[in-house]
């Protein structure tokens, strides 16, 4: 009976040891798979970090270009604004000069009209005097 019980316990022990070994092997495989997955994720993280660094660098470069372009456009706008102000000032001076010239031309035309009218009256008076002097001996 003892021998049978011992034999039975040994068999159970062997079965349990085999199950333990199987469980340990499965656990080792799972640990290996997890380690591979961890390494794969670490590589992926490294790649993503590199891509992020490159994107940051590209963005900084792009922002620098945009800042330079904005500065250039701002300077250009300021220059054009100054030119516009200068042109408006010049236009104002030219309009003033034009107004003075128009006023001068108007006055000269009025004087010419008055002189033409006076010359016409003088001619009439000369003709009248000639007629009168021709009628007189």
UniProtKB/TrEMBL annotation:
Keyword Amino-acid biosynthesis listed: no
Coiled coil region boundaries: 63-97
Name of the protein described by the UniProt record: LEKR1 protein
PANTHER family assigned: LEUCINE, GLUTAMATE AND LYSINE RICH 1, LEUCINE-, GLUTAMATE- AND LYSINE-RICH PROTEIN 1
Keyword Repeat in annotation: no
Keywords assigned: Coiled coil
Organism: Regulus satrapa (Golden-crowned kinglet)
